[in-house]
Each structure stands twice: as structure tokens, then as C-alpha cells.
Amino acid sequence: MFRGTRVPVEALITNREAGLTLDEFLENFPTVTREQALQVLEFSKTTLQKLGKSA
Questions:
Q1: Is residue 25 part of a domain?
Q2: What total number of domains does the chain contain?
Q3: 8-30: per-residue pLDDT in tens?
């Protein structure tokens, strides 16, 4: 969950996979801040990069 909301982080990932822009996601989930979403995306990117290096 995004802190202070009832929105699961998975909602961001699945919406992005479905082709929605970050702005569209934020319009659909107004309780999530841009900063929160960007932090999740950066964490995901960093984690995937680390996993790719260890594979």
C-alpha cells in the first residue's frame, strides 16, 4: 500500500503495464502523490537492475 492511502503499490505497476501514463495513474488515484509513485518506480527499476546483474 502507498502510505496513507488504500491504494496497493501493485495498482501502479499494473496500470503502467496496461499503458497508462504516470499522470493518468495519478488522476485515477488522487490519494497517491507523484513523489510516492516516483519512489516506487525508482525502487522497482533499481531492484530489477540488481536482479539482472546477479542472474
A1: yes
A2: 1
A3: 999 999 999 999 999 999 999 99
